[in-house]
């Protein structure tokens, strides 16, 4: 299996530290609002990766943090007149709700920055002792230049980093720092009502970067297999995590750095940004979009590629899910029959698909290629079920494989076949109900008209003792 490593900028053979096990850390959200579609993309991309690793038989330990204290948290809590922990509680709950709806498996552990203060302070103390950090008037900074290789993840040299840092100067901080590229590990409390913890440097709170170094090494060990996050975290966040962790432990921090691509919004594929007011929250999307469709859509683009979130693309995903659903329903119907006719070609096609699926996923999680294997197989299956006698054992095998393949994409086959996917479902339901009523009233002219109308929409009706069932043809 090959994984693209951001650090080396190439695909590398994946060799976990402990055979059969994978340690994985993914940077989680700052919980000051509902998660936006960019956060969801990261959660979905790494959940899909995790699920495939589990499918391959790895025992995956997956840690993802909540940043529950920082400037954004403090400002938002102040604006709402509530405490930072109150704000965090609200949006951690919302995160769990949204991610459950999107069928994202909970992390093995979801540590929170505010619950790790003791370890964060100890970590910073060690960095000071080793000469990698210094205190100035209650703030503690990391001495970036002392760390050999600072800039290696984002492929920048010190000169260009300094150039960049001098363009984003906060005058007050600039005056305190030895060098503009040094970054904060501990931030002094600014106002007496601001959330703060006691430390050897006075009252304050941890910086953002340090929390991930602490939680990753604490829960997964000094060196881990995979560290993931959005492309925007490559610099400075992950660069700083490497500097902090490797300076403290003297060991390699992460073997495989993985970064997911951006999400653009709308027809003109704009980047999401505060100034464009196009931050789309999952909470809002799920009021009108089926979570299965959103999940499948986001999982069906390879994690490193950009995703364009648009109505059109969501619609396409819904159509594909519908096609899969139809085949599954038809196979399930067919499996009620008793006569079976062995079809060697079908068995071979299914086995071949399994191999090609794995081959695609083993190539840096190429989900698009993996899904085309599934799409190619559907007509082969449909052909077999259209025959008078199908190969029932092959069809059963197909369902078993499909269930596992789709689960990697967060699609639950039972849910898919029992819940509605398309927008026009409500309309169809309404027509089916009207037809049932017409039949009850022996108004066969009306019921026939509705049946024709549904047939035109490619809807197949099945009259059962429990009422009329329908499915797409
Ligand atoms: Zn992080």
Topology, please?
Elements: E1 2-5, E2 10-13, E3 21-26, H1 37-55, E4 59-64, H2 71-80, H3 84-101, H4 117-129, E5 133-136, E6 139-142, H5 158-167, H6 171-176, E7 183-188, E8 204-206, H7 208-220, E9 224-230, H8 234-249, E10 254-260, E11 263-265, E12 270-271, H9 282-285, H10 291-299, E13 307-309, H11 311-334, H12 344-362, H13 367-386, H14 392-408, H15 413-418, H16 425-440, H17 444-456, E14 459-464, E15 467-472
Parallel strand pairs: 3-4, 3-9, 9-10, 11-13
Antiparallel strand pairs: 1-2, 5-6, 6-7, 7-8, 11-12, 14-15
Zinc ion is lined by residues 27, 212, 237.
Quick overview of this protein structure:
This protein has 473 residues and is of the alpha/beta class. It contains 17 helices and 15 strands. It has 3 domains: 16-131 and 209-282, HUPs (Rossmann fold); 311-417, Up-down Bundle (Four Helix Bundle (Hemerythrin (Met), subunit A)), CATH 1.20.120.640; 425-472, no CATH class.
Would you write up a description of this structure?
This protein is α/β, with parallel strands linked by helices and 473 residues long. The protein has 3 domains: 16-131 and 209-282, 3-Layer(aba) Sandwich (Rossmann fold); 311-417, Four Helix Bundle (Hemerythrin (Met), subunit A), CATH 1.20.120.640; 425-472, no CATH class. It is 49% helix and 15% strand. The strands form 5 sheets. It has a 4-stranded parallel sheet. The model has no long low-confidence stretch (mean pLDDT 93). The site of zinc ion (ZN) has 3 residues, from loops. Zinc ion (ZN) binds next to loops.
